[in-house]
Amino acid sequence: MKKTWLDGKTFIISGASSGIGKGIAEKLIIKHGCKVIGIGRNENKFIDFSAKLGENAKLLTYRTFDVTDENEWKNLAKDLEKDGIRPDGIINCAGILPRFKKALDTETEDVIKVTETNFFSCVYSINATYPLISRSDTPAIVNVSSAAALATIVGTSAYSAAKSALKSYTEALIYELKGKAYVSLVMPGFARTDIFRSQNTSIDENKLIKNLSMPAYKTVNAIHRGIKRKKTRIIIGKDAHAMNFFYRLFPKFTMGAIKKVLKGSKLKLFEDVFCDD
Ligand SMILES: NC(=O)c1ccc[n+]([C@@H]2O[C@H](COP(=O)([O-])OP(=O)(O)OC[C@H]3O[C@@H](n4cnc5c(N)ncnc54)[C@H](OP(=O)(O)O)[C@@H]3O)[C@@H](O)[C@H]2O)c1
């Protein structure tokens, strides 16, 4: 296979125990012989992942902790330094999507949890590990935001706000570290993963979402392609591209149209959002 800048590198990947993060970790290990330090909470998921990797399992190590705990990130960085492990990059992929509901029905503690998991965890991880990563000859930071940061979807106020914060933060990093590090902002549309586990119905029962969404492996392939080419902005899926295009040209119309389509679809997935409209 053609040589790429990714070959043989060491990456820290949060959310590597499942879904998109696991898919990216697997690609980097199998296609590029990368070493991956996976972060997640559930050890059993990592044990299964290791078993799936077979002889490549030696390239995966993992730490189980809650990404919202800044001290855990500081301890990780200290341990890597102590053990002489030099990460070349970090991919922040851990995230949660709470059940779709109106902003005013969302408890403050849920907004805080979503923001800590989807945004602050990335600030903590980058602040703690960048001093090590910056010593690499190819330093890299990849933050997985969402199409929800391109155009807000009604019923996802906290999620969209946290992913928008991550988008702005990453855009600042892209320009502040230009010439020093590769920084990328990833904005996928709907992908079929376990992230929908908090919803009141399976997404497979929703024809609209099923048609709009991508199989997780396609999202992973697109992220892998983008990172390989050092793209700083990776938008994935027809839904994400449409949101990006229309919101930039007609923001008010697009927001209204998204609401109309979701309300008109009468999907169980959005019943809490439109219950008394
Ligand atoms: N799927 C989509 O449609 C979609 C669309 C746009 C953006 N995204 C973004 O893509 C990323 C990956 O999502 P996914 O679809 O792959 O979801 P997923 O299958 O649910 O995976 C989420 C990962 O995040 C980890 N995680 C969550 N909270 C954590 C915490 N507090 N501490 C440590 N690890 C935590 C989970 O680990 P444990 O289970 O071990 O806790 C798991 O590995 C997320 O940031 C999500 O917002 C997804």
SSE layout and pairing:
Elements: E1 10-14, H1 19-32, E2 35-40, H2 43-53, E3 60-64, H3 70-82, E4 89-92, H4 108-133, E5 140-144, H5 157-176, E6 182-188, E7 191-192, H6 207-212, E8 214-215, H7 216-228, E9 233-236, H8 238-249, H9 251-265
Parallel strand pairs: 1-2, 1-4, 2-3, 4-5, 5-6, 6-9, 7-8
Helix pairs in contact: 1-7, 3-4, 4-5, 8-9
Features:
277 residues, alpha/beta, Rossmann fold, 9 strands, binds NADP nicotinamide-adenine-dinucleotide phosphate
Outline the structure in words:
The protein has helices spanning 19-32, 43-53, 70-82, 108-133, 157-176, 207-212, 216-228, 238-249, 251-265, and strands at residues 10-14, 35-40, 60-64, 89-92, 140-144, 182-188, 191-192, 214-215, 233-236. It is an alpha/beta fold and 277 residues long. The chain has one domain: 3-Layer(aba) Sandwich (Rossmann fold), CATH 3.40.50. Strands 3-2-1-4-5-6-9 form a seven-stranded parallel beta sheet, sandwiched between helices. A two-stranded parallel ribbon has the order 7-8. α8 (238-249) crosses α9. The longest helix has 26 residues, at 108-133. The mean pLDDT is 95. Bound molecules: NADP nicotinamide-adenine-dinucleotide phosphate. NADP nicotinamide-adenine-dinucleotide phosphate binds next to α1. Residues 15, 17-21, 40-42, 45, 66-68, 93-97, 117, 144, 146, 188, 190-191, 193-195 line the site of NADP nicotinamide-adenine-dinucleotide phosphate.
